[in-house]
Write a structure and sequence with these properties.
Elements: E1 11-15, E2 18-22, E3 28-29, E4 35-38, E5 41-44, E6 46-51, E7 57-65, E8 68-75, E9 87-94, E10 98-105, E11 111-120, H1 126-130, E12 140-143, E13 146-151, E14 154-161, E15 166-168, E16 173-180, E17 185-196, E18 227-228, E19 242-245, H2 248-264, E20 265-268, E21 271-277, H3 289-298, H4 305-317, E22 333-334, E23 343-344, H5 345-363, H6 367-393, E24 409-410, H7 411-430, H8 435-453, E25 455-456, E26 463-464, E27 467-468, E28 474-475, H9 503-514, E29 544-545, H10 546-558, H11 562-578, E30 586-587, H12 609-621, E31 625-628, E32 633-636, E33 647-654, E34 657-663, E35 669-673, E36 679-681
Parallel strand pairs: 32-36
Antiparallel strand pairs: 1-2, 2-4, 3-6, 4-5, 6-11, 7-8, 8-9, 9-10, 10-17, 11-16, 12-13, 13-14, 14-17, 15-16, 18-20, 19-33, 20-21, 22-23, 24-27, 25-26, 27-28, 29-30, 31-32, 33-34, 34-35
Length: about 675
């Protein structure tokens, strides 16, 4: 039976479009997802090291960066006496397809060391391997200083330095006889590359998005992997932010999250200057529109280059032909949990586009770039009004449907639409558009209708409905999607856009999100523990989703509910520690106990762009940073509770210039570095 292959205990080195997935032993045996990958293909599935007729004893395997792993082992040889091994080894493995194996001797005499490396590959697609459907091993041939395997339209080539003394194609075997002098060392370098039929290492063979034949098993959205964005690639498109916090776990989380995002960043094949971040390994190694936009929005404090590149990529995909889809950004459907039909990621991306552009302008996106992208944002807003007006003429009362014109009408979709209308109006007004007034009026009307139709009264004070059905019936299940009601967006003067809820209802929602039914102790459940259909492993039915927890925490902090925000921030930080600071996209929503640790969801991406960006969003939310570069001002409104103690943030970017701040244990903020002429507002 096809099912997601386990990989959460593996060491995943990522530098898209290249990957290396290893067990803690470092021995690639061809099982599961282990291997080197390039452009969505497994270039090497087996790389087993044997020394003196046996496997080394590996005593430690760990990541030393998002794209690198290190394995330390010892070698026992016949005739050795005593408990101490005389030879130890180090394997340094990189996502780019290179590995360095170094042997070091502590013996007082020369050591002769027979070394074998057993190699194989299937050139299988990542999508097939990830759901347990690998290919068969291909026959190798001796090629230069290594081996070569051929598949349809491509070749995998392994080369070694020094040249092996023996290469057996029939066994996929390379052999050396190494001489180690007393106290000396010897090194073997391996390199694996994918060559396409056109010659040389090439670009993505365009495997396309796939779905597994097994029901309910997601197939990776490989799509076009794009070109590298770092190393032999261009610099990553954000500032080198640094956090120095009293709780040093926060520093480690910031470093690990930035590393994961760096590994997931790729250049768009259609325009190599445009960089975006892939969704995550192994299910979304290609472009996922809504996720890429969310990640770029959460990283705006580190600069606007990623947002600009992502927006340009999406602008090229927008529907511009006349018709019902005019202005909409295409996107796939995704499962929405046990109580609603699938939602459309394209609708979410369409509503996010004007929001990200408007906020990027506040952070310092150059006017020329804003003007270039403004027509796309205007078309998104025209689609928004059109979709809502179609509903207004029928029985659907002007809400934005998702995924089809007949509904349903999701709580979070209305929050996205309301925010897009207000921030879009703010953006259009800055450029003299008369459409700004109509958008503000529509947003105000939406808020009035929403508070009447979506709020379900009960003895405790009520709750927001998860959605309205096509006939207007509210579905009252409470989940983390309600957190989007707290995410209102940044306007001018360091102010936040008004939300769909009034202060009383916001307070009630804060109480619900901070209660034990929603807060697992590790983060916010996607469905409350008391709701029907709750499943701690339900990706939309009870599991903790990191980015929605981050949205909730930042929204609660901005609304003045600092203790609830601090509890969520601490819960995610505690979870991050147990995951070695590489947060998965989601993990089980089981209630936290004294002896428990969070458990990853079997189909969660790790590393995941939204989890990494969400972690950074959480940490920067502690400062309450609200810039308005067009007005040459910036405001700091840090959490007075200072849940992680004193902290210093450096390497941020406001107005495309370095920005640094400090928050005291008492929650007092101070700007330490800023662009010339930038005034500190209240």
């Amino acid at each position: 039976m096809l099912q997601p292959q386990p990989f959460h205990s593996s060491l995943v080195c990522v530098a898209l479009p290249a990957l290396a997935v290893s067990p803690a032993s470092g021995q690639l045996t061809g099982r599961g997802l282990h291997g080197f990958y390039r452009d969505g293909r497994r270039v090497l599935s087996r790389c087993e090291l044997w020394v003196a007729g046996d496997e080394p004893l590996v005593v430690q395997g760990r990541l030393t960066g998002a794209d690198r792993a290190r394995f330390i082992g010892t070698v026992r040889r016949a005739g050795e006496r005593g408990p101490d091994p005389e030879v130890h080894l180090e394997r340094l493995r990189n996502a780019d397809g290179t590995e360095r194996i170094t042997f070091r001797s502590s013996a007082a005499r020369p050591v002769r060391l027979p070394v074998e490396i057993r190699l194989a590959t299937d050139l299988a697609e990542l999508g097939a391997v990830a759901v347990g459907f690998p290919g068969s091993d291909l026959p190798p041939a001796v090629h230069g200083a290594g081996l070569r395997w051929s598949g349809p339209g491509m070749h995998a080539v392994v080369s070694a330095t020094p040249t092996p003394q023996d290469a057996l194609a029939s066994a996929g075997l390379l052999r050396w006889e190494l001489e180690l002098p007393p106290g000396g060392a010897r090194t073997i370098d391996l390199r694996v590359v994918l060559e396409h039929a056109s010659g040389g290492p090439g670009s993505d063979p365009s495997t396309g998005r796939r779905r597994s034949a097994a029901a309910g098993v997601p197939g990776p959205r490989s799509g076009v992997f794009g070109a590298p964005a770092r190393g032999d690639r261009s610099p990553h498109p954000w500032a080198a932010a640094r956090l120095d916090c009293e709780d040093h776990r926060a520093d480690a989380l910031m470093v690990a999250s930035l590393g994961d995002l760096q590994g997931l960043a790729v250049r768009d094949p259609a325009a190599p200057a445009d960089v975006w971040v892939a969704g995550g390994f192994p299910w979304r190694c290609g472009f996922a529109p809504a996720e890429a936009l969310w990640a770029s929005r959460m990283l705006l404090p580190l600069g606007t280059r990623l947002a600009a590149g992502t927006l340009r990529v999406l602008a090229r995909s927008q529907h511009t032909a006349p018709g019902a889809d005019f202005g909409r950004i295409p996107g796939a459907l995704r499962d929405a949990g046990p109580h609603s039909p699938p939602s459309c990621t394209g609708i979410e991306a369409t509503l996010l586009f004007p929001t990200v552009l408007a906020e990027a302008r506040r952070w310092g996106l150059p006017e020329q770039e804003t003007e270039r992208l403004l027509p796309t944002a205007e078309r998104c807003l025209r689609w928004l009004r059109s979709a809502a007006d179609l509903g207004r003429r029928g029985s659907r009362r002007g809400y934005v449907p998702d995924p089809v014109p007949e509904g349903p009408y999701r709580c979070e979709t209305q929050a996205h639409a309301h925010r897009a209308a207000l921030l879009g109006a703010d953006l259009l007004a800055a450029y003299g558009s008369s459409d700004a007034v109509a958008l503000r009026e529509w947003a105000e009307e939406l808020g009035t209708r929403f508070r009447a139709d979506f709020w379900v009264e009960d003895r405790a004070g009520g709750r927001p409905a998860a959605l309205l059905t096509a006939d207007g019936r509210p579905v009252p299940h409470l989940g983390s999607a309600a957190a989007h009601l707290l995410d209102t967006g940044l306007l001018g003067g360091g102010t936040l856009a008004p939300g769909l809820l009034d202060a009383t209802r916001t307070g009630r929602l804060a109480s619900l999100l901070g209660g034990p039914a929603m807060d697992s102790g590790w983060g916010l459940r996607s469905l409350g523990a008391k709701e029907s259909g709750y499943n701690p492993f339900g990706h939309r039915g009870g599991a903790v989703r990191v980015h929605e927890t981050a949205i909730a925490a930042a929204g609660l902090a901005a609304a003045g509910h600092e203790r609830a925000a601090g509890a969520l921030i601490k819960g995610v930080l505690d979870a991050a520690e147990s995951f070695g600071y590489r947060l998965p996209e989601m993990y089980a929503g089981e209630q936290r106990t004294a002896d428990a640790v969070p458990v990853p969801h079997p189909a969660a991406c790790r590393p995941a762009a939204l989890a990494a960006a969400g972690a950074i969003h959480l940490l920067i939310a502690l400062a309450g940073l609200r810039p308005d570069v067009p007005a040459r001002s910036v405001a700091l409104r840090p959490l007075g509770t200072a849940p992680l103690g004193a902290l210093q943030l450096t390497g941020l970017s406001v107005a495309e210039q370095p920005f640094a701040l400090r928050i005291s244990r008492l929650g007092m903020g101070m700007v330490e570095a800023a662009a010339d002429g930038l005034q500190l507002g209240s």
